[in-house]
Amino acid sequence: MTKKPKPLSTIQVNGPVPADQARSIIESSLREAILDGRLPSGTALRQQELADLFGVSRMPVREALRQLEAQSLLNVVQHKGAVVAPLITNNAVETYALRAVLEAFALRLSIPLLDDDDFALAAQYIEQLEVQTQHAEIAKLNRLFHMSLYHKAPNGKLLDLIEHELNEEERFLRFHLSSMGLGKLTQDDHRAILAAAIARDIDKAVALLEQHLEKASITMRRYLEQPSKA
């Protein structure tokens, strides 16, 4: 029987890792591997193995793991240490309800402060989403589009909370876009939200955003109802 390759073998390290960049390089490499499924849920990440892989001490590894835990990508489990977190948890629907409240509030605050450059950037993300076929890039562009409309909300804590939740959605989209039966994400909702924002029709933009998030919530509920979830 052929042995399955160890998950860490999917991570390539190109040359020596500079000491002053070790933490960020390790964090970025592990984050990408978690998001695209190379490090599946339940994978234990042991500090010494990672230190050996990247050719560094355990200190930057420990710091990188702490950052990933703060991003909800890792859980610390007794006797196992850092473990890749589940793709999505059973409170996902509640999370989407919270997102609708937070993002609607951010959009209300941000629209009056957005300018032509902001609208042009949002439109650019939509155009890229129309032609992009790589699931990783689609999920990333989806997050960037939303943040381009929220980012001028004068409430840093609010934006931090939203970005955290968008990062979790990015992970879900990257790994399950194809299994949801979506070759790509339709941009009709995004275009309508942007058009309302450009027109400074705040109530319409918020209503469209809430409808958009409700569609995503339905997709999430369907996923959670499946007998077996990866």
From TrEMBL:
One of its GO terms (molecular function) is DNA-binding transcription factor activity. InterPro entries: GntR_C, TF_FadR/GntR_C, Tscrpt_reg_HTH_GntR, WH-like_DNA-bd_sf, WH_DNA-bd_sf. PROSITE patterns: HTH_GNTR (PS50949). Residues 20-87 form the HTH gntR-type domain. Keywords: DNA-binding, Transcription, Transcription regulation. This is GntR family transcriptional regulator. It comes from Pseudomonas zanjanensis. The lineage of its organism: Bacteria, Pseudomonadati, Pseudomonadota, Gammaproteobacteria, Pseudomonadales.
